[in-house]
Design a protein that fits this description.
The chain is an alpha/beta fold. It has one domain (2-246): Rossmann fold, CATH 3.40.50.300. It has helices at residues 41-48, 71-78, 96-101, 110-114, 120-132, 148-161, 178-195, 206-212, 235-242, 247-271; strands spanning 2-10, 16-25, 30-34, 56-61, 64-65, 81-84, 166-170, 199-202, 215-220, 223-228. A 6-stranded mixed beta sheet has the order 6-7-8-3-9-10, with helices on both faces. Strands 2-1-4-5 form a 4-stranded antiparallel beta sheet. β7, α7 (178-195) and β8 form a beta-alpha-beta unit. α5 (120-132) packs across α6 and α6 packs parallel to α7 (178-195). The protein is globular, with a radius of gyration of 20 Å.
Amino acid sequence: MLEIRDLTKTYKTGDKALNNVSLSVPKGQVVGLIGPSGAGKSTLIRCINRLVEPTSGAITLSGRPLTGIGAGELRAMRRKIGMIFQEFALVERLTVMENVLSGRLGYVGFWRSYLRRFPAEDIQRAYRLLDRVGLMDQADKRADALSGGQRQRVGIARALAQEPELMLVDEPTASLDPKTSRQIMRLLIEICGERGLPAIVNIHDVPLAQQFMQRIVGLRAGRIVFDGTPAELTEAVLTKIYGAEDWAAMRKGTEEDKAADADTLREMLRLGA
């Protein structure tokens, strides 16, 4: 379980990116983090993995502190936090397998990692993960030869190679088309459920969050202004988070996208594709 208590981040300018944020995420739950630009979503994720130093407050993972610890303890804890990035953050010239194995760098010595000599157990784990994300046949392909959806699947497998206790996901679908976005979100939800992983997903696509997230947290000006189920995310609540918008039109567009996907699938089945 991830526990965040009274987390505040104040920059030197005096601006508060986070203001007294408290949040608990139990095992297996995927939380969608929504809000306008500048609401503090990315800052929250970066405070959790300590890429940004909180001004005050406490964070614990599985009962162990992530705040108030030394550099050695922090390195050990970061091994337990899988990160999935908007722009994939793959090493383009390396193969898919080598990118997945890079998730084990925190567990092997410098020279073994430098020479890419990973233990057989790590290699077998990487193959299992590639099979799980549907990329077993792409293991030897260079990362720069993959589609956006395939790259994000590699990013998921790499994060899982760390054997994490928490997943932090930053805008995983921002560079993907709507159909691929839904496939990636479905995969993330399934994997977190299978492994009992708590996860926080910073997501800008509100309809996508409503479709897939088990729980949604809305941030505005560094404060939590909503914490509930997708069903509770009414137009009034969305307006409180984002301001005025034609939310009904947005939902209609999402339904049309899903209907188009279903029509495409039925046509492929009819043609025997």
